[in-house]
Amino acid sequence: IVSSTMFSVSYSKNSSWIFFCEEDTRIQIVKLLKTLRRYDKSKEFFLGKALHDDESTIIHHYAFAENPTVFKFPDFAAGWALSIPLVKKLARRLKNEPLKSDFTIDLKHEIALYIWEKGNGPQLTLVPEFCTEDFNSPNGVTCATTFTNFLPQCGDPVKKTDIFIAVKTCRKFHGDRIPIVKQTWEGEATFIEYYSDYAESSIPTVDIGIPNTERGHCGKTFAILERFLNHSPAEMPWLVIVDDDTLISISRLQKLLSCYDSSEPVVLGERYGYGLGTGGYSYITGGGGMVFNREAIQKLFASKCRCYSNDAPDDMVIGMCFSGLGIPVTHSPLFHQARPMDYPKDFLSHQVPISFHKHWNVDPVKIYFTWLAPNVQDLEYGSKHVREDL
Length: 390
Prior knowledge:
- Keywords: Glycosyltransferase, Membrane, Signal-anchor, Transferase, Transmembrane, Transmembrane helix.
- Residues 7-99, 157-366 form the Fringe-like glycosyltransferase domain.
- It is found in: Endomembrane system; Membrane.
- It is a single-pass membrane protein; Single-pass type II membrane protein.
- It is a single chain.
- With 390 residues, the protein is α/β, with parallel strands linked by helices.
- It has helices spanning 29-36, 84-96, 107-116, 177-183, 218-231, 250-257, 294-302, 314-325, 345-348, 364-372, 376-389, and strands at 17-20, 25-27, 46-48, 50-51, 73-74, 80-83, 103-104, 125-126, 145-147, 163-168, 191-196, 205-207, 238-243, 246-248, 267-269, 271-274, 281-284, 290-293, 330-331, 355-357.
- The strands form 6 sheets. A 7-stranded mixed β-sheet has the order 12-11-10-13-18-15-19. It has a 4-stranded mixed β-sheet with strand order 1-6-3-8.
- Helix 5 crosses helix 7 (294-302).
- The longest helix is centred in the middle third of the chain and has 14 residues, at 218-231.
- The N and C termini lie far apart (45 Å).
């Protein structure tokens, strides 16, 4: 996240560039050095593989609404680089000017905006050798970087019976949103409950005892967390809380969770930030799905940190609580707070997404079966683990 500490990094007096990348970015060092030598290291350069919005989108605060394609920002998966003169300029600026934005939603777009400085700073320079797919182009360009675009997996997928799914809903959405869940991903889940302000046996929903609120749902979410602690089997390690208009792949989540130690506190999802330039905190945005393990929830309740009102923003309050506990939230770019069309096509092309959010102006069933539905291998994993547990 952009902050005054971001550019307070140690580098050799002889360094010409700072190169940033993802943990799964593959780098051919010799090729990368050769590529960087094409650019004048004494000038302010911002290098990367360019992404752009096809339509203005809420996740970028509807920036460049008249023509969002004009503004380019870097695909972090391909890596991006800053020349040292630009690094020094940004460090001075961060030291002398506080960041104006309270919220950090999409870091790659917000960094590019900050560097561009309303036309006073450099725009992103496209580097063909910064790639997310390995290829040799007809004009002789070979990739200095590539990206591993498979779903992270660190062993056998977590069993479906180890994951409890909590769906937040309310009476007014029982008739339109819940049927979509049942048509799409409900069948992937072994343990799932719908928490509402009204008990409807045909679904069924559980009246969680918290009135519906139009804004935040802190009271409802904390009631779900407490119910998980007190009423689910003690050996069940994982809780996933989603909205009733979240689309999610449980089989892919099973694989991702194999990379986390359930004995250590884990809070996982799409990370947003609030007030990070002035000592704020990160939080998992709720629409894309919030993943907790039992250890994290136990530490949360032991801390006595709670909602200041039932309609407080649940995801932000939870983030503030974990920040106070010194427990970091873990970002995964595979969870999405918005719809597929709200993200650049090139960005999604090297992802195996786990979730999307919102039914607004889309066919959510089509989105699920296009982007998230399990393949045959996923189904085999799932049935294998269910048989093992039975």
